[in-house]
Amino acid sequence: MKKILVIGATGQIGSELTMELRQRYGGANVVAGYIQGAEPKGELRESGPMELADVTDANVLAQVVKAHQIDTIYNLAALLSVVAENKPKLAWKIGIDGLWNVLEVAREAGCAVFTPSSIGSFGASTPHVMTPQDTVQRPRTMYGVTKVTTELLSDYYSLKYGVDTRSVRFPGIISNVTPPGGGTTDYAVDIYYSAVRGEDFVCPIQAGTYMDMMYMPDALHAAISLMEADPTRLIHRNGFNVTAMSFDPEGIYAAIRKVVPDFKMSYQVDPLKQSIASSWPDSLDDSCARNECDWKPQYDLDKMTVDMIEKLKARL
Q1: Does 143 qualify as catalytic in the annotation?
Q2: All domains of the chain in start order, with CATH
């Protein structure tokens, strides 16, 4: 039976990933790692073990891995794109110095490691339509710089030390459980909250700006299925392009109006978010993930929209 540590278990992805892993492998086998001041609550706290696991403290990480006999680490510690641009030094400390600690602990303990990359690892000089798996990556944001470094450092530990490192390049992730926390694609979450609350939505991204997106259930599936994939099939490791849909603000607005006909949206473009969004791909080619680890999304824009609104109505 696997013994798993999720670092960043109270974050947007981590909170749902931890619960999904506990359902698959048993609550006692999945440790929710958290940082001071962000302790697990509710079901996340009650359904399995939890430990302080700050990536900036290698000794604490090593103790947790040893105490729970961890063999797989999902390292989700990072600042999101907009926050990272405002706090670049902290973004590097968490994203790269922290990753180094995780990889060193994994090397010594023989753990597999998943550390997500992002579409933010691409830049303005990257082909924007059907962005290839292997292409130029020259981001101009600290978030993007840390994600490219994540991919390279993870590959280095795989090649030099044999650490089983794997990652996907997540697009924007849309969740009905955890509120957004400072990402460029967060408008695609906020817009559903406004629709369900009967509020008009003011969009910070200009019309015609396409970005890849994914519903949270597919994001969880992408991470777990990659970690469960036969390693002999993996030509790539860090990180796979994965996507489920690509749309601009007008596209998601139209999808929501099919369910909420009176919904209204206007624009007030945020210059920082727009500059980041404009440098990212319009669409990704994820054929390598489909061929090497049988990746296939379950949700398109319309199916996701119906489910998002239904779940948010029940909760809000």
Answers
A1: yes
A2: 4-171+215-241 (3.40.50.720), 172-213+245-282+300-315 (3.90.25)
